[in-house]
Design goal:
Mean pLDDT: 91
Number of helices: 8
Structural class: alpha+beta
Low-confidence stretches: 117-128
Order of helices and strands: HEHEEHHHEEHEEHHEEEEE
Strand content: 25-35%
Shape: globular
Length: 253
């Protein structure tokens, strides 16, 4: 277990500078340059890389196959980013950090927003993605995808991280509710119970800052959210998780 004075044991969310403006823009340029390798998840929502909470939804095999397909692409295109990332995480977590096959490397989430319907884009043709405040409760969740990516794993601790690289008009952020996974399990809360809790209770909003990484243990109820109405542009983030075993962290997505 982590010591009581480790920041993951006592801090709900932490933020740290990682990339500067030009480094973030260069990463966005590379991500967009690989658009042909994105995986479309829904209208306006894409990923670059394998995603455990999506690709391992049914069984680990699909996730591991997707990881094998995308890891070499990512490691080649973003070698410098991963080198800096693992060193950064080792410094922040104050313990050794590595990546192990066959898990997926941290990857990218891409949301594209098209603004409100207009005369030239009728409502029935409008394919907008809602990450607004009103729908945040519907997306509230815990990051327990390690149960799918690595069945049988019982981590000593967990971490989740998001690096904002590009934000749409109105900005973006993270909503965090005062409920942890252990309490939800103890109370035998269903998905409907979690939705009710998120709907009826206030959350803390952590606003994204480009190049500044957001870290938390993933086990507080949380959800991604946008800012304002009718956003336009892209929301691109680097995403990943970590599981701790015997004092070492394995990073994956």
């Amino acid at each position: 277990m982590l010591s009581d004075d480790h920041w993951l044991s006592s801090t709900r969310v932490a933020t740290h500078d990682f990339l500067d403006t030009s480094e973030s823009a260069e990463t966005v340029r590379r991500v967009n340059g690989l658009r042909g390798r994105w995986t479309r998840r829904s209208d306006g929502y894409f990923t670059l890389g394998a995603v455990s909470f999506l690709d391992a939804a049914e069984a680990p095999d699909g996730y591991l196959a997707a990881a094998a397909h995308t890891n070499s692409l990512l490691s080649t295109a973003f070698d410098d980013l991963y080198s800096g990332l693992f060193g950064f995480l080792a410094s922040v977590l104050d313990e050794p950090v590595d990546y192990r096959e066959p898990l997926a490397l941290p990857g990218f989430q891409i949301f594209e927003f098209y603004g409100e319907p207009s005369e030239s884009r009728r409502p029935q043709d409008f394919q907008g993605l809602d990450l607004g405040e009103q729908s945040a409760a519907e997306r509230a969740h815990f990051d327990v995808q390690f149960l799918r990516a690595a069945p049988g794993c019982t981590p000593e601790a967990t971490v989740s991280f998001t690096l904002p690289l590009e934000q749409p008009s109105g900005g973006a952020g993270l909503a965090v509710w005062p409920l942890d996974c252990a309490e939800a399990v103890e109370r035998n809360m269903s998905e409907a119970d979690l939705l009710d809790f998120a709907t009826q209770n206030a959350y803390e909003r952590v606003s994204y800052e480009t190049g500044r990484m957001i870290l938390h243990d993933g086990l507080m109820l949380h959800a991604a959210m946008g800012g304002g109405t009718g956003p336009r542009g892209q929301r691109i983030t680097l995403q990943g998780h970590g599981i701790r075993h015997r004092g070492r962290w394995t990073i994956y997505w």
